[in-house]
Amino acid sequence: GAREELAAPFDATSRFRFYHLNANTAQDAVPVLNEIRGFELALTLEELGRGADPTPFLATTSQYVPLVREAAGTDQRRHLLGAVCAGGTGTAAFAAEAVRARREGDTWVLAGTARHVIDGDRADELAVVAGTGDGVGVFVVPAGDVTATRTPAFDGSFHVADVAFDGVRVGDDRAFVGVGVEDAVARARDEAAGGLAAVEVTA
Fold this sequence. Notes:
Elements: H1 2-7, H2 26-35, H3 38-50, H4 57-71, H5 74-85, E1 90-94, E2 99-104, E3 107-118, E4 125-132, E5 135-142, E6 147-151, E7 160-164, E8 169-171, E9 175-176, H6 181-202
Parallel strand pairs: 1-4
Antiparallel strand pairs: 2-3, 3-7, 3-8, 4-5, 5-9, 6-7
């Protein structure tokens, strides 16, 4: 049943399969992904913590997905979460004090380094909360555009990295700023903290 699927171990090819319980394609799975949170996600994360799961599941589902879901517009959310449903990975950096974004022409230019980013060295996409002249914004950056340096962690299987965003340019299709973004970031941060706590319960 669904609970058994959620609690099952995840390997490199199947860790996102529960997104597809009620969907046939990656894009069809986006509405399912939008709703999987709370108890269902916490149950999965607790079980993965018990088994010291080494995959990027924690960062993707409890860090990256909430930030994109809360901050992005409908079309961008469908595109970015569709990539996750197809097996892509992501992480989030709540780094408004350390990373800044400034407008330059039709793009945003980032500067600064986010510290201690979960899976910052191996996620496909990084959603960073950066400070702007008008508050905060969320900017989604491909891994190839940043410089990530893995840092030591007490648990050797746990990936944590410092991620440098200096000079990274982000187009409007991957930049979420304006009214409501600060509240969206707050909601996503709460969910991210809850996800990490769920893993630690049984770790």
